[in-house]
């Protein structure tokens, strides 16, 4: 399994309540003979071949290594790295993870968030000791693609993750589904007693507004940015989209008054970011 077999891109996780970058999810893009493969298919195949831990270790190492291409202030943000459940009980993978966690940002291992993906079925009870070991290092846990089904609720109850990432099927079209929005808000209130909730798959301003109304403060999706390559210019592009949303919200709060000082200041900040982007 070669390093060239995986490319790493990063998708921002945004604190839409504060209109600020919260963190990144590192996404592995498997490549075979120049063709990009579906990550779920590739990692599932690795699991079936007994190579899941090697695949996850490679993904982790690359995710942390390429993060250095971002500006210093960005590198200190939480980094979500996907992992198959079976890898968390594999000693070779755990040793790699422990080494990486100790090296991150001068020992700030809490920057690292292990995001358990559901590419394969698993018993969350079998992961409790592995999760305890990671937490002893300061590493935090996230559950990916969480829904309201029994399996998701069982994993949430047994593992008590620091972060819960809602399945995009619960988010997309939320603005046009008031009953679903009300039910989700009630569910979020219960979950937030234990975990921070992140809405995945946010693609429209209308759905972002609906997400905010449920009490969720963190979101991720193409509304903010597609996954980007690890470089400073790509980061500025992400900041532009966040600031563009901040300007929209500021105008809305100021009843459309374009001459209000808050609107002018936010507009100037956006202009400055755009200039930085085009100047390279």
TrEMBL record:
Gene Ontology MF annotations: cyclic-guanylate-specific phosphodiesterase activity; protein dimerization activity
SUPFAM superfamilies: BAS1536-like (SSF140500), EAL domain-like (SSF141868)
Family annotation (CDD domains): EAL
Boundaries of every EAL domain copy: 1-241
Domain of life: Bacteria
One Pfam family here: SpoOE-like
GO terms, biological process: regulation of sporulation
Name of the molecule in the record: EAL domain-containing protein
Organism expressing this protein natively: Alicyclobacillus cellulosilyticus
